[in-house]
Each structure stands twice: as structure tokens, then as C-alpha cells.
Amino acid sequence: MPLKSKQARIAPLEPPFDAETTAALGQLGPPIQLFRVWARRPELAKGISGWGRYYFSRDSALTVRQRELVIHRTTARCGADYEWGVHVATFAAKAGFDEPQLRSLATGSPADACWDAADRAVLTAVDELHATSDLGDGTWADLVAAAGEDGALDLLLVCGWYHAISFTVRALRLPLEPGTTGPNSP
């Protein structure tokens, strides 16, 4: 269930930032609330940025669309309105998602008519991981056919990472970033 708290449990840092914090934020990206919480401990922020640099680069075996299918679906399934909103605002257009697909990612099914077979394989894998922490042989075979073995491995890690991000933003009670909405918002 989405959380509606307006006050974060750990306050994000506010400008002006010292040099070490500025450097840490520079590695993470725009100074959104989550990054400003991580930047309270610059070494944590630097460690997290290394992980993100890989998964948000061309080195990842996942396409932008596949990565965002995983992230959008995982954050929606976890009720992480904050992270859903950030990814919709930043990546939905780059991933080529239309309104029916965003609705389906939020509350629909991989069987919805808006998905092709490759997207359906990714979403089925995400849903199965969310429900069982495992993939059946058929789901694995469909995922490998859609994304390759390296893509399947990256999907497992991205899905797990965004469970961790979802746990973090929910437990921290981070309010939505300005101009964003959660997956169940009107």
C-alpha cells in the first residue's frame, strides 16, 4: 500500500553542500531527495553510484526499455510511489512507454494486450521474482529468449536492487518529488 507521509524519517541534506557532498551528489545525478539522503554519507553515495553507472550505461546487457520495465514494475509492485514517480518522469518517454503501458505497469498484467512477447517475458519474470524469489524453467527460457543470458542476469540484479530501493524509499517515507505521481495516483 502506498504511503502518504509528508515528512521523511531521515531528512535529505539541503544546500549549501560542502565539497565532499557536492562531489558525491555529482556522481549520483540530479540532487533528488533519495540521493541527498545517501549523500549524508559520501562513501555510501560513491559506492551506490558505481552500481548505477553500470546499470544506467550502455555496458548493461539490458536495453533502456527492458531496464525500465523491470524498474517500473518492481517499484509499482512494491508500492514505492517515490521511485515510480522519479522513473516515470525521467525514463518513461526514453523507454517508449505509452499511457496504456504505464497503466499496465502500475496495476495490470504481463498478459495485457499492450505488450509484445519480449516485454511480456520481462514482466512475467519480474512478477514471478516478486512473488516467489525464483524463476520457473519456462519463465527463464522465455526471459533468455527475450534478453539473452547476460540480460537475464542483469534483470535479476536490477529487480533485486529496486526491491532494496523500494524498501528504502518506503521506510524513509520519502514524499514524491515535485511534479511526479505514484503508480496509483489520479
UniProtKB/TrEMBL annotation:
Pfam families: CMD. Residues 42-123 form the Carboxymuconolactone decarboxylase-like domain. One of its GO terms (molecular function) is peroxiredoxin activity. Gene3D superfamilies: AhpD-like. This is Carboxymuconolactone decarboxylase family protein.
